[in-house]
Amino acid sequence: MKVFQNISWPVPAAIVAGASLMLLQATPLLAAAPQAAGDTAWWVWVLALFLFSFLLGIVAVLAGVGGGVLFVPIVSGFFPFHLDYVRGAGLLVALAGALSAGPPLMRKGLADLKLGLPMALVGSVSSIAGALVGLAMPAQNVQLLLGIVIISIAGIMIKSGRSGYPEVSQPDRLSQMLGISGLYYEEFGQHEVFWQVHRTPQGIALFFVIGFIGGMFGLGAGFANVPVFNLLMGVPLKVAVATSGLVLSINGSAAAWVYLFKGAVLPLIAVPSIGGMMLGSKIGAKLLPKVNSRTIRMLVITILVLSGLRSLMKGLGI
Q1: Which of 84, 165, 191, 291 is 20 to 30 A from 41, comparing alpha carbons?
Q2: CB 311 within 8 A of CB 146
Q3: Please, which residues bridge with residue 182 across strands?
Q4: Are 262 and 81 in contact (CB under 8 A)?
Q5: What is residue 295's DSSP assignment?
Q6: 178 belongs to a structural domain
């Protein structure tokens, strides 16, 4: 079984037979591989992964990007784990964060089922295809493409943060048929916001593409869900952020099964990541209505650019 980057892939699919067996097998490998992780003990990396995921959970909910889009480039760039394991854990991290933050956001009226479910349906189908393609590619090629995608995501996020309350004068027919509209209370400005959407067919088409990319790189899809909801369909920024988590919980679960089946999920990496993410996401969900999310997004954009450059350098062998 291969854990670190300098050991070749693939991993036998049989390792998914039992999490306990995988944990017992992985521990001596981690402990006996100082050449891959320097002189640092394996448990230090596990603890660091938990703390990092905890902070990531807070920031990801406030920025509306999903945990995977930050987890995969940062962990693959700065932790000594093989990229395929990181992508598998990244999908589970995005899924865990979305499931943890979803209930409180729905109770506050920010996450909307009628808006999220149609997009999640098409995205979950394409995310499975993306996961299959990503696992079939060499890790170095995926790393290079990941860097390009991450830097592009940062550019998308710069634009997506400009439209807090877009105006939709006339909803399209499909959104009217599906009953996609809502009302929520904006605590930051102390007022109620009514919203409706347009360009729903175009949004559904883009969510198919987003699901493929998210499954291929193990990113989830929060990075693109929010711009499509906000800029294209006219959804208020905070509703777009909250509903993005709902879509992630469905898309991520679909693609995650592919990584599980292929043996690309290692409990020693996934468990501390998911635990930290779920704790951090609960805190982030409570803070979301009270903070100015645009400031957080600018911090996330900076981190994404640095992580994207790091992935490009690793993909090019620099």
Answers
A1: 84
A2: yes
A3: 195
A4: no
A5: H
A6: yes
Secondary structure class of 186 (helix, strand, coil): strand
**CA–CA distance, 64 with 83 (Å, rounded to integer):** 24
- 114: alpha, beta or left, given left = phi > 0 and alpha = psi -120 to 50? alpha
From the list 95, 90, 98, 88, the residue with the least C-alpha distance to 22 is 88
Cα separation of 234 and 230, whole Å? 5
Q: How many domains does the chain have?
A: 1
Q: Do the beta carbons of residue 114 and residue 180 sit within 8 Å?
A: yes
Domain range for 111 is 13-315
User: Where do we find the tokens 């990503």?
Assistant: 134
Report d(CA 95, CA 279) in Å as an integer. Answer: 13
For residue 128, being part of any structural domain is answered with: yes
Q: Which among 236, 238, 232, 245 has a CA at the least distance from the CA of 120?
A: 245
- Secondary structure letter of residue 111 according to DSSP: S
Residue 309: C-alpha distances to residues 157, 211, 303 (Å): 17, 23, 10
**What's the pLDDT band for 96 if we cut at 50, 70, 90?**
confident
Considering the domain boundaries, does residue 6 fall inside one?
A: no
Q: Does residue 7 lie within any of the structural domains? A: no
Average the pLDDT over each of 17-26, 48-57, 144-153, 269-278 and give the range with the smallest value: 17-26
d(CA 190, CA 184): 11
Residue 148 CA from chain centroid, whole number: 16
Distance CA 42, CA 59 (A): 26
Q: Do 175 and 196 touch, CB atoms closer than 8 A? A: yes
